[in-house]
Amino acid sequence: GFANVDLHRPKRQGFPEVVFGEGKTADQIIAIVRTLKEHDDRVLVTRVTQDKAAAVRALFPELVYHDVARLLYWKKEQAKTKETDAYIAVICAGTSDLGVAEEAAITAEMFDCEVRRFYDVGVAGIHRLFHHIEAIRAATVSIVVAGMEGALPSVVSGLVSHPVIAVPTSVGYGAHFQGLSALLTMLNSCAPGISVVNIDNGFGGGYSAALIHRLACQKG
Amino acid sequence: GFANVDLHRPKRQGFPEVVFGEGKTADQIIAIVRTLKEHDDRVLVTRVTQDKAAAVRALFPELVYHDVARLLYWKKEQAKTKETDAYIAVICAGTSDLGVAEEAAITAEMFDCEVRRFYDVGVAGIHRLFHHIEAIRAATVSIVVAGMEGALPSVVSGLVSHPVIAVPTSVGYGAHFQGLSALLTMLNSCAPGISVVNIDNGFGGGYSAALIHRLACQKG
Amino acid sequence: GFANVDLHRPKRQGFPEVVFGEGKTADQIIAIVRTLKEHDDRVLVTRVTQDKAAAVRALFPELVYHDVARLLYWKKEQAKTKETDAYIAVICAGTSDLGVAEEAAITAEMFDCEVRRFYDVGVAGIHRLFHHIEAIRAATVSIVVAGMEGALPSVVSGLVSHPVIAVPTSVGYGAHFQGLSALLTMLNSCAPGISVVNIDNGFGGGYSAALIHRLACQKG
Amino acid sequence: GFANVDLHRPKRQGFPEVVFGEGKTADQIIAIVRTLKEHDDRVLVTRVTQDKAAAVRALFPELVYHDVARLLYWKKEQAKTKETDAYIAVICAGTSDLGVAEEAAITAEMFDCEVRRFYDVGVAGIHRLFHHIEAIRAATVSIVVAGMEGALPSVVSGLVSHPVIAVPTSVGYGAHFQGLSALLTMLNSCAPGISVVNIDNGFGGGYSAALIHRLACQKG
Amino acid sequence: GFANVDLHRPKRQGFPEVVFGEGKTADQIIAIVRTLKEHDDRVLVTRVTQDKAAAVRALFPELVYHDVARLLYWKKEQAKTKETDAYIAVICAGTSDLGVAEEAAITAEMFDCEVRRFYDVGVAGIHRLFHHIEAIRAATVSIVVAGMEGALPSVVSGLVSHPVIAVPTSVGYGAHFQGLSALLTMLNSCAPGISVVNIDNGFGGGYSAALIHRLACQKG
Amino acid sequence: GFANVDLHRPKRQGFPEVVFGEGKTADQIIAIVRTLKEHDDRVLVTRVTQDKAAAVRALFPELVYHDVARLLYWKKEQAKTKETDAYIAVICAGTSDLGVAEEAAITAEMFDCEVRRFYDVGVAGIHRLFHHIEAIRAATVSIVVAGMEGALPSVVSGLVSHPVIAVPTSVGYGAHFQGLSALLTMLNSCAPGISVVNIDNGFGGGYSAALIHRLACQKG
Amino acid sequence: GFANVDLHRPKRQGFPEVVFGEGKTADQIIAIVRTLKEHDDRVLVTRVTQDKAAAVRALFPELVYHDVARLLYWKKEQAKTKETDAYIAVICAGTSDLGVAEEAAITAEMFDCEVRRFYDVGVAGIHRLFHHIEAIRAATVSIVVAGMEGALPSVVSGLVSHPVIAVPTSVGYGAHFQGLSALLTMLNSCAPGISVVNIDNGFGGGYSAALIHRLACQKG
Amino acid sequence: GFANVDLHRPKRQGFPEVVFGEGKTADQIIAIVRTLKEHDDRVLVTRVTQDKAAAVRALFPELVYHDVARLLYWKKEQAKTKETDAYIAVICAGTSDLGVAEEAAITAEMFDCEVRRFYDVGVAGIHRLFHHIEAIRAATVSIVVAGMEGALPSVVSGLVSHPVIAVPTSVGYGAHFQGLSALLTMLNSCAPGISVVNIDNGFGGGYSAALIHRLACQKG
Ligand SMILES: Nc1ncnc2c1ncn2[C@@H]1O[C@H](COP(=O)(O)O)[C@@H](O)[C@H]1O
Ligand SMILES: Nc1ncnc2c1ncn2[C@@H]1O[C@H](COP(=O)(O)O)[C@@H](O)[C@H]1O
Ligand SMILES: Nc1ncnc2c1ncn2[C@@H]1O[C@H](COP(=O)(O)O)[C@@H](O)[C@H]1O
Ligand SMILES: Nc1ncnc2c1ncn2[C@@H]1O[C@H](COP(=O)(O)O)[C@@H](O)[C@H]1O
Ligand SMILES: [Mg+2]
Ligand SMILES: [Mg+2]
Ligand SMILES: [Mg+2]
Ligand SMILES: [Mg+2]
Ligand SMILES: [Mg+2]
Ligand SMILES: [Mg+2]
Ligand SMILES: [Mg+2]
Ligand SMILES: [Mg+2]
């Protein structure tokens, strides 16, 4: 058919191929989901509109749709569940960043990570971050999501001793250039220990964090 | 002559014309300084190299040259001095931002403002800022100078109740684009109360702050 | 809940948190407005569409909606009113800049400033500006709003002796790049005393001006 | 040889080919000048460094070198001289724009136009422009040269009834981006009647103005 | 009212103010048209949608609407008509550039210029241009409109001896960046005698050409 | 003094502050190194020129200088050494990327990580990568350094199951824009599991990898 | 009429003019198609929406519409058909690039080339490409279509010995900038033998490949 | 060693690896040249400065250095020579583009292609191109090199029926942005049949043309 699903991934990378839903028709997504469900124990489709989700769920009602994160997903009952107290911290600056933060959090959960959420704690009122700093410090890795000037990852990274994955969002206007400003901020951070994914790429942030978390949990 | 010095300024704006030294020859600067000294009680030339400064000072040894700020300046003895306890806070993120911070501080001092300096207090080690926060809060206006990701003005502005003038610097590399990244950060700040001047424009920051400070001091 | 409203602001900054309405649902705005009304004596929501405004006003009919400025706001009857003759000048270049100019003017009024408006006085017919120049000179601070080439703040700043806050707008086309051209013009002004806020950020301009105006009015 | 000089130009366009000196060796310039002198009654080479000029003048001492404009030129004694009172106004904003303004003025003179210069009359002290406005209004066409925010052409064009050629310069720093800011300003001018040439392209401005001036002088 | 129409223009510049229709409501346009009709002998409104045009014409049926050029205009019967054989050449590269070319042509006609049109003669089939070259050479000034790579003005300018006004259009896709590519091409032309207006600014091109044409026609 | 070294870092983050050598004078570096040596068991200075390194080593000959990586560093004899077989893979595309790759590798080694190097294995001859793929797969984390089109991290990440830190370099020319092209490539990778640091930021890549490696090694 | 169809092309270039459908009305397309059908043995219109295609096909039902490639086309029965086993390889990275890949493939077929398609073989799962590498190596020329990071042409070009035409697509988001990222990747490829067409320009890629293929087939 | 020369290339691609000389030391180049000379019958190093060339030639005097093209090269006596009348046309717009044009021409010659040069035939004097058009039409493929506005490939491609490889150069100033303007022009050409390589990438243009030329010559 038109698609050439990469079914070697679980073997090669430990996780099945995730479907990029944007720009695919509902029919294309249905065909790919069918193939994946036959071979894998979980399915994740990103950037799915409500309409397409409804069309897919008409055939596969066991898939869950999360409309803020725009994710469509399913995990086999017997799929591996976490066996550790360790968790990933997902932190976001403003309420407008919620969609991207949830995309990151659910992606990580899909790959068997425990997640704790710390939302609306941006630098304009920095006491809100300090309120949670001990719980954040205890995480294995932080995913920090921010739009506007995107300063939050720098502040967080200066306060913790674990890796920080920064996710810029397109929330902003004017000289924000659809997230470019926040992206540049994060790439130029003076606080070391930050690495960055694409604008609005909650999935990418969640996935990289899950890889790191898996390393932290594969204890002796 | 080639130049048309704006001698109405002290009347129109309260401050004499400041000379933009970049791209002017030593001879051009000397000619302008001569005219200004005849009419005004102070002279300020910005962005002057060491060589040009020496050439000018050979003729006008009373001018002071500050090599970090690259300023050349002089004030008549009897020029108005401050009559108030109020001060401007000049804050900078890293030691590499010193030149721009000093350009701002000395500019403000040239226009009869009291200044207090808070240097190397960037967000990567945010406790350094908190250490001085009470003294900063007590200022009339803050000039916050930062390169790299330029996050410091957002944090400061969230903690004070006076206006913040943000000055991005070209300190950084790669996706910093000679200060563009820091500039965008400051324009997109989620903390209100910040206005921004051009990259490395310490003079502009100092001048705007001096105008604000003058308003604050013209009490009753 | 999803939001973490910063209720310390009046204490920390003298003004309550202003809500960024863009990208928030009507329900989210309603929840935040409810919290704010319980704690503060005024509420301001920016960038609100007509539809969302109607939904919020169905529950809080005391809120006023200004459709050109896209602001939704309310002040307690007993809220502090001005006690001074001083005023902020809000100046705009063309009739297309009205929305942003009004956002600035009303924001300043919300924070208890007196405002005088000087509209459609752009540089293409500069006699229109000169007509009002005495009244503008008498202000504490000017907010100058301009799209297209954004030259107005330079001309104004050369004629007054108080601080100028420049607000670029996205009015223009072609090589205007949604306001980038006007923004750059303002950042590069050869007239000192100008500081700049983000494109279309009338709120930011009004807020910064209000902070400066407050300093000017706290007379002895 | 390596070059293919366009000797049809005087016939096709009324003016001989002008040599772009940048990136050519002194030897290449000498070879081209030799060919041009054999066929034409004038020679103009732009963007010539002092060193190259000296090398060329060693062989052709009759060529004049102007070091501010970086032009090398020569006109046959009997070359056509002006027969009219009409003149082009060359206006510049600051003393740092002198080089580009002179490149424009001399180019126009090379093509037999009368020129009047109005220098250092930028918008930060706009009274300096008004001082000369009647003489400017009487020109056939204005060339307006400006760096920094580049606002001067808008103001001039609003005050005259002839065409304005705007020449942005690379004078500025930070978010000026080597003249891009001034260029955008001029392209977005709200005052009609302005057309624009490349950054620092004094030659192009002078040439276009000369073409217009020639039309104005070819009276009945 | 909200607008401050510049009624001095005919005196100052020989042409009345032209209305920028984009971003104005039908009601705003009606109010301005009413004022202008009272004082001037012609009215021109640019960038008017079909809907707004209909609303204005309901009140002022004597106004003509041109839907390709998106212009709304009217001239008093007794308004000055041309008294010369001279004409402006309006040249465009592809059929997709028609709207901008017509905006330029009609603007010039509104200001009493004779116009001749040469359309769809782009460089991909350059014999189409050569077919008309004698008639183009005979014009006073050429307006050359082109999108895509925008190469046509360079070719035309190399073949004529009069000024060329280049108008880039936003026709193109991908790395065209809404006309930026064509704009840069025109600014960097190796053929002298070209000056440039903003992307899609047919009005600006027509207006500048009209000013030049007027000079050429004011013979003896 | 001028600098405000962040001495809390080892406590807060497990690693001492690293000095950004660019733009600091030799004297400033010496002062900071002196302070750090008094408090910490290792010192790392980045982006140091040969001249400055010599000046520092005149006083502190125990510091090592690596001229390709432009690093200056020192570790106390008794500083913690690795206790594990695990290693970080440092991979680079071309020989021109060596400097940045070494900056990353040595940074990681400074923070007690084992490192294996795989150099000059870019995608133009992809068999060179496959030759080493088993050893790369066995690493805890890969740092992939590439200039030009920067495609290598995508290929590597598709073949391994651990996190990939991508470091774009400024090696390239023309439309490479000093590394921007490679940076964008890495941010847009279709292979998940990649996060990115600034252009030429070998230090940042090494530091982030070290944080991840530490997690992987803190077994049971 | 409004259009000036270039009917010399088959003589000059061997292929008739192709119509750029974007921004043309159905009526304009109909008029051009009518002219072309009278003179040529094939017609190709690019970037046609479903609606316009239906309107054209109402009059010319013999035209075929391909809705993924958005092409409208027709070939006379007796039009030349291929006389060779040689073929062009059309390769694409992901299923979202299908539209552009089909535009390229059908364009090549319209100009009498044999085509073989290799779809969804992007670098994230590079074994999919290796699976087809022998068939790809046997082609005369490859058209490689890719969005996201656009790394596929580099990998293909390193494995084949024929020319590669790279076509970047606008598939991606965030720092992809509508295909700019993929375009830059391809221009900066370290693998020689790649030349690039505009973003989403499947037509241009197919046309250039057809010219090359024609050379390869004109054997002895 | 540090480098991992790709010695499979002649087998895989028919041509040996070409060395990118920029950013390599003379010693590195010497080491690579030694390896290549042992395995291949020709060596080509690009972007070599005069100094490095001298150092390499001290050891390998049989290598030729071309200082305009900045190439260093050598071919074994018995290396294959051309057996056909077919040739590649290398066309350039101005004398400043000579270096890049020669880089392209010599690269093609190194890979056994016959080349004819047509230099200084830019669009400002288009008759110069027409003078040579028949010889250009007879080529198998054209390499068109142009800086400034980069319009030449469009004009050439409209006149020939073979593929055109366009090479933008960084010759220009101001809004040329080091070749970006010419690059965009070429990518947006309205004349089909053009594909583009990186700015100043004469090597890439010559290599792609050689691959095409080889196809054209492998006759029956
Ligand atoms: N129009 C606006 N532009 C920029 N910042 C705003 C605007 N309106 C409100 N804000 C700020 O945005 C923050 C609230 O963001 P949020 O938590 O998303 O509601 C507060 O710090 C406000 O000061
Ligand atoms: N090459 C580098 N790139 C980015 N950040 C660095 C680099 N080297 C050191 N740093 C960071 O820069 C900060 C020190 O800056 P400074 O106070 O200017 O010495 C520390 O937070 C370091 O972690
Ligand atoms: N999708 C396309 N992208 C770029 N050029 C095209 C496309 N389709 C047709 N063309 C070219 O556009 C020109 C026709 O433009 P027009 O006169 O506007 O129809 C011809 O030279 C075609 O080769
Ligand atoms: N001027 C050039 N521009 C782009 N690529 C080049 C150039 N010269 C050589 N190359 C390629 O660069 C690679 C060699 O890179 P390196 O390993 O750094 O020598 C080979 O794939 C060459 O084909
Ligand atoms: Mg909030
Ligand atoms: Mg520091
Ligand atoms: Mg108006
Ligand atoms: Mg001056
Ligand atoms: Mg056409
Ligand atoms: Mg190599
Ligand atoms: Mg796929
Ligand atoms: Mg020439």
What's the SSE blueprint?
Eight copies of one chain form a homooctamer.
Chain A: H1 9-13, E1 19-20, H2 26-39, E2 42-46, H3 50-59, E3 64-66, E4 71-75, E5 88-92, H4 98-110, E6 115-118, H5 127-130, H6 133-137, E7 141-146, H7 152-157, E8 164-168, H8 180-187, E9 194-196, H9 202-217
Parallel strand pairs in A: 1-2, 5-6, 5-7, 7-8, 8-9
Antiparallel strand pairs in A: 2-4, 3-4
Helix pairs in contact in A: 2-3, 4-9
The complex binds adenosine monophosphate (4 copies) and magnesium ion (8 copies).
Key descriptive features of the protein:
homooctamer; 9 strands; 220 residues; 4-stranded mixed sheet; 5-stranded parallel sheet; alpha/beta; binds adenosine monophosphate; binds magnesium ion; 9 helices
Describe, in plain words, how this protein is organized in 3D:
The structure is a homooctamer of 220-residue chains. Chain A has 220 residues and is an alpha/beta fold. Chain A has helices spanning 9-13, 26-39, 50-59, 98-110, 127-130, 133-137, 152-157, 180-187, 202-217, and strands at 19-20, 42-46, 64-66, 71-75, 88-92, 115-118, 141-146, 164-168, 194-196. In chain A, helix 4 runs parallel beside helix 9 (202-217). At the B-C interface, strand 9 and helix 9 of B face strand 9 and helix 9 of C. The complex binds adenosine monophosphate (4 copies) and magnesium ion (8 copies). The site of one magnesium ion has 3 residues of chain D, from loops.
